[in-house]
Amino acid sequence: MSDPRRPLERLRKTFNRHDLDGLAETFSPGAVLVAPDGVGQDRDEIASYYGAFLEAFPDSRCTPQSVTISGDTLVAEYTLSGTHKGAYLIPGGGVAEATGRPFLVRACSVSTVENDLIVSHRIFYDQLELGAQLGASLQFEEQERWV
């Protein structure tokens, strides 16, 4: 059995190099990425998701804090940091234009690995925290509540 940390480490390194081709290759062809601000359902969509993030934050970096492994599933805690230098989609459908502001947010991911590739990658971070650091005015529409 291969070490399930390897694909996650490759993902971090390619993200920090802003190498979208290498990043896409850390995922299986039919991999799924689910994040607060988007979903990708294959390598191309996943690379597009990360590409949009890197356009908004071209100097962004991922710094690992901890990794917990259970079988083929990994839970990683990390920080993302960078500078807001491009348009970024914010909750509610708005766009935060470049502010030049730095950001630092805590995040975590849950990844499932098969055959040394990531098949499922779920990212969690506080969009409000990121928006506040960017100085974005966040507005949410009232959503129908379950009764």
From TrEMBL:
The keyword Membrane does not apply. It comes from the Bacteria. Keywords: Isomerase. InterPro entries: Cyclase_SnoaL-like, NTF2-like_dom_sf, SnoaL-like. GO terms for molecular function: isomerase activity. Gene3D superfamilies: 3.10.450.50. One of its GO terms (biological process) is polyketide metabolic process. Residues 9-121 form the SnoaL-like domain. This is Ketosteroid isomerase-related protein. The lineage of its organism: Bacteria, Bacillati, Actinomycetota, Actinomycetes, Streptosporangiales.
